[in-house]
Amino acid sequence: MTTATLNGSCPECETGLTVPPVVPGETLSCPECMLTLRVEDVTDGRLSLRMVAVQLRDWGQ
Ligand SMILES: [Zn+2]
């Protein structure tokens, strides 16, 4: 039986996150602080997340 979801917490605001299965290297967005988080590792259904600097797009303003 595989784990249907993975759990982790935002390193910035410590909001608990439950996400569908991801693999290291994928990125998620924290719903609370909107930071982009990269999955560093997945261990036993637990995510290790690291905030990444987001390159803001130039929207042509
Ligand atoms: Zn957060």
Please state roughly what percent of the residues sit in beta strands, choosing from under 5%, 5-15%, 15-25%, 25-35%, 35-45% or over 45%: 35-45%
Small molecules bound in the structure, each named once:
zinc ion
- Main beta sheet, described? 3 strands, antiparallel
> Secondary-structure element order, as H and E?
EEEEE
Give the helix level as a range of percent. Answer: under 10%
Shape verdict? elongated
Sequence of strands across the biggest β-sheet? 3-4-5
- Structural class, by secondary structure, is mainly beta
Question: Helix count?
Answer: 0
The count of β-strands is 5
User: Could you give the distance between the termini?
Assistant: 50 Å
Which second-level CATH architecture applies? Single Sheet
Question: What's the CATH topology name?
Answer: Rubrerythrin, domain 2
- Radius of gyration (CA) equals 13 Å
Average predicted confidence as pLDDT: 90
Report the uncertain regions.
none
Number of domains: 1
